């Protein structure tokens, strides 16, 4: 299904996005590329990409990869991502980018959603790294076992072990948000980027 939401995008913003190629035979013509997102819809990491693409008013195709059926481990998919994980974004024919935060950086750089200041950019990135290394291994994994696999009892002991570091990660966020309205108070551009993280984290927190 094609999601086309670029009707109201400013020309200056659209021109910054890396989504154009020159026509192979008529160099004066510019071809608009439609991104293709290979995803598993319940995944928080895939949700982040859909939300960012929507905020950027970017048209994109969605291709569902059912990880529960092993579809991310097929030879065909491994050509797109040898690590066998979703999401994967096809940014040009046979040109793929994987890892959700790398995709977010690629899409948002040069737009109003990512700051230009060096420190501000690093502050956005620090929370994205935090999400992947201090939050996801505990809260996202717990959500996957409970909500998607329905194996809370089978993973009961492992879930109990993840509770303390999971709540610790949430505590870091709560402490920070006592002083700020957002994880990073550095302007509307970075707030929007960090919102992608915040909303995903809240959804995951419900399952821990």
Present the secondary structure layout:
Blueprint: E1 2-3, H1 11-16, E2 20-22, E3 30-32, E4 35-39, H2 44-55, E5 60-64, H3 75-78, E6 88-92, E7 95-98, H4 100-108, H5 118-148, H6 156-177, H7 188-205
Parallel strand pairs: 4-5
Antiparallel strand pairs: 1-5, 2-3, 4-6, 6-7
Describe the structure.
The chain has 208 residues and is an alpha+beta fold. The protein has two domains: 2-108, Glutaredoxin; 118-205, Glutathione S-transferase Yfyf (Class Pi), Chain A, domain 2 (Up-down Bundle). The chain is built from seven helices and seven strands, in the order βαβββαβαββαααα. It has helices at residues 11-16, 44-55, 75-78, 100-108, 118-148, 156-177, 188-205; strands at 2-3, 20-22, 30-32, 35-39, 60-64, 88-92, 95-98. The chain has a five-stranded mixed β-sheet. The protein has a two-stranded antiparallel ribbon with strand order 2-3. Strand 2 (20-22) and strand 3 (30-32) form a beta hairpin.
């Amino acid at each position: 299904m094609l999601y086309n939401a670029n009707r109201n995008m400013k020309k200056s913003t659209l021109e910054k996005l890396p989504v154009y190629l020159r026509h192979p035979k008529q160099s004066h013509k510019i071809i608009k590329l439609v991104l293709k997102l290979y995803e598993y819809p319940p995944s928080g990491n895939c949700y982040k990409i859909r939300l960012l693409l929507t905020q950027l008013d970017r048209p994109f195709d969605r291709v569902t990869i059912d990880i529960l059926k092993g579809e991310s481990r097929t030879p065909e998919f491994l050509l797109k991502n040898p690590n066998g994980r979703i999401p994967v974004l096809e940014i040009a024919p046979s040109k793929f980018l994987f890892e959700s935060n790398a995709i977010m950086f690629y899409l948002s750089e040069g737009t109003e959603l990512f700051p230009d200041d060096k420190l501000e950019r690093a502050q956005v990135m620090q929370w994205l790294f935090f999400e992947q290394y201090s939050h996801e291994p505990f809260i996202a994994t717990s959500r996957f076992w409970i909500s998607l696999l329905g194996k809370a009892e089978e993973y009961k002991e492992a879930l109990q072990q993840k509770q303390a570091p999971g709540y610790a990660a949430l505590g870091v966020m709560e402490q920070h948000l006592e002083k700020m309205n957002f994880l990073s108070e550095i302007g509307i551009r970075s707030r929007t980027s960090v919102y992608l993280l915040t909303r995903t984290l809240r959804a995951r927190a419900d399952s821990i």
